[in-house]
Amino acid sequence: MPDYNTSLPLDTDYYATFSDASDEDKAFWAKAREFATSSLDELTEAWDKGEYPLHLVRRMGELDILTDGVEGPGLTSMSPLAAGLVNMEISRGDGSMGTVIAVQGGLALRSIAFYGSAEQKAQWLVPIARAEKIAAFALTEPDHGSDSVGLATTAHKVDGGWLINGEKMWIGNGSVGDITVVWARDDDDNVRGFLVPQDAEGYHGVTMTGKGSLRAIHQARITFTDVFVPEDAILPGAKNFRDTGKVLHATRTGVAWSALGHATAVFEAALSYSTQRVQFGKKLAGFQIVQERLASMLSQLTAMQLYCVQLARLDAAGTLTPTQASLGKFHNTRTARSIAAMARDMLGGNGILLENHVIQHMADIESIHTYEGTESIQALLIARDLTGVSAFS
């Protein structure tokens, strides 16, 4: 059977969308490109086996590309565009590592940077950014996903600290890390954030198995049984669920960029394949229907790029709203699914082989389409902003 080179980056940018990136932004992008390219084969194998190569997470920390643009003491400054390009490039290589950025940097690191005390920031920000410590963000519960505002995990005040009880589910790094940012309801019914060591007595994180997506990162189901944490474990700046939501809103632009990375990978795989695969005596690229599909995929990919760059501009200007971030996530994950479906079809039977780098991205897109707010939830948030009418009640 012939071998096809479908993983070579083609730097597709038909509208020169990224041409204004600064040299500093491009330097971050180049580091992400080096990592994505050099780790591709190992990550494909890990995805196939359902293994989590934590040494590659630590390598991203060494390269200083895990922060998702979070600002804080000791952290390297990264513009919103640079953070997006890194997220895009890492996801172009492998979606599991893109999710690592979302969890380690986008959620856990950001929670501490936003709401932690000076002492907590000094203790945790740099080690998490460098992946010297592996961190998790525990919000979703078995019975509370899209309606996470109704979370049932509790934090009861006791002498010297808090007792945490409840369950969390789909928690990236929740069974293999060092610290988990746990969101729980206190005695006054306010949602608060807590820093919980994963080796704390009563903390039981079990790696979830049987996944058909994001197979090279471990998610956990966590049970908290009278887990005691001291008073200084609480994030003092997180007072209610609106504060939790601020972290989620900030990470939705990252999901839009991640979707762009996946879409770029499958489009470029299809384009490369079409110039190599011969059927009926000529290359696929010479067939009209193939050319029409390539043009259609390019139009969708270019729209995704424009969305992402505008999101970065708004973020850099400090004017990005939560629903603008929601629209970016809503559009880009939907569009990535469409591009992936066309790419898989273009590759025929070869499209389901991991070595051709389409089916893995197609499966991983299903996860990013769901997490950080499902398509339906994003639509309701956007429409509420448009109409002034809430459909949540």
What's a quick, concise take on this entry?
The chain has 393 residues and is an alpha+beta fold.
Please describe the topology of this protein:
Elements: H1 23-49, H2 54-62, H3 80-93, H4 95-115, H5 118-129, E1 135-138, E2 154-158, E3 161-172, E4 179-185, E5 191-197, E6 203-207, E7 219-230, H6 241-274, E8 278-279, E9 282-283, H7 288-317, H8 322-346, H9 359-370, H10 375-387
Structure characteristics:
alpha+beta; Butyryl-Coa Dehydrogenase, subunit A, domain 1; Butyryl-CoA Dehydrogenase, subunit A, domain 3; 3 domains; 4-stranded antiparallel sheet; 3-stranded mixed sheet; 9 strands
Give a description of the structure.
Helices cover 50% and strands 14% of the residues. A four-stranded antiparallel β-sheet has the order 2-3-7-6, with helices on one face. By secondary structure, the chain is of the alpha+beta class. It has three domains: 23-129, Butyryl-Coa Dehydrogenase, subunit A, domain 1; 135-233, Butyryl-CoA Dehydrogenase, subunit A, domain 2 (Beta Barrel), CATH 2.40.110.10; 241-387, Butyryl-CoA Dehydrogenase, subunit A, domain 3, CATH 1.20.140.
